[in-house]
Amino acid sequence: xxxxxxxxxxxxxxxxxxxxxxxxxxxxxxxxxxxxxxxxxxxxxxxxxxxxxxxxxxxxxxxxxxxxxxxxxxxxxxxxxxxxxxxxxxxxxxxxxxxxxxxxxxxxxxxxxxxxxxxxxxxxxxxxxxxxxxxxxxxxxxxxxxxxxxxxxxxxxxxxxxxxxxxxxxxxxxxxxxxxxxxxxxxxxxxxxxxxxxxxxxxxxxxxxxxxxxxxxxxxxxxxxxxxxxxxxxxxxxxxxxxxxxxxxxxx
Length: 252
Hints:
- This protein is α+β, with helices and mostly antiparallel strands.
- It folds into three domains: 27-104, Alpha Horseshoe (Serine Threonine Protein Phosphatase 5, Tetratricopeptide repeat); 116-187; 189-249, Roll (SH3 type barrels), CATH 2.30.30.
- It has helices spanning 2-20, 27-37, 41-54, 59-71, 75-88, 93-104, 116-125, 130-154, 162-187; strands at residues 189-193, 197-201, 210-215, 219-226, 229-233, 239-243, 247-249.
- It has a five-stranded antiparallel sheet with strand order 6-5-4-1-7. A two-stranded antiparallel ribbon has the order 2-3.
- The longest helix has 26 residues, at 162-187.
- The two termini are 41 Å apart.
């Protein structure tokens, strides 16, 4: 058991090193930061956007672009980029605080009427990436199989003892978390309203009646798509069809 614990610890340490690795920042990044510090937010935003085109998986680029957008008064764009930064770096407290601040500046707000357990689940899932959730499942499966192999070779304990029950429960929990991340990213895709005023209709057509209106920066969940329209769900339970041009999905 001691050797097994050491092996597991080694796996976890190697994983943390992989996630801690970050690409080197070049002169373009430094120039963008200089523009931001000197108050040239438009040029800084342009440079950060170009960096994202070259390296779309660097969280700090989205975070800094979000800061520049908010300085320029583009709240919806800033919120969108903070959300993207948190997809790549979900435990970035600076991005989380700035996102909360930007949302506090919005004129239009939507109450979150979801049940407490849905809110709690959403918060837990937001503190990890989809890759981390899947990796957690693989680690637990590996430990479970390895412990079974140890039992098969040594025969020291019954297979379904307290240790294996604990590992099995971890496997179920990790599987639920991984499924939750899949649902969050692929089934109910996050999106941000980008227009000053967005009309949600009862159907995917200009001829359908307006169900409700939303302001810029509001977060919605995309549930379905039909050509130029998307069916969205709000945290207060309202749903309707909006034009794809009125929203931007939070995806990398």
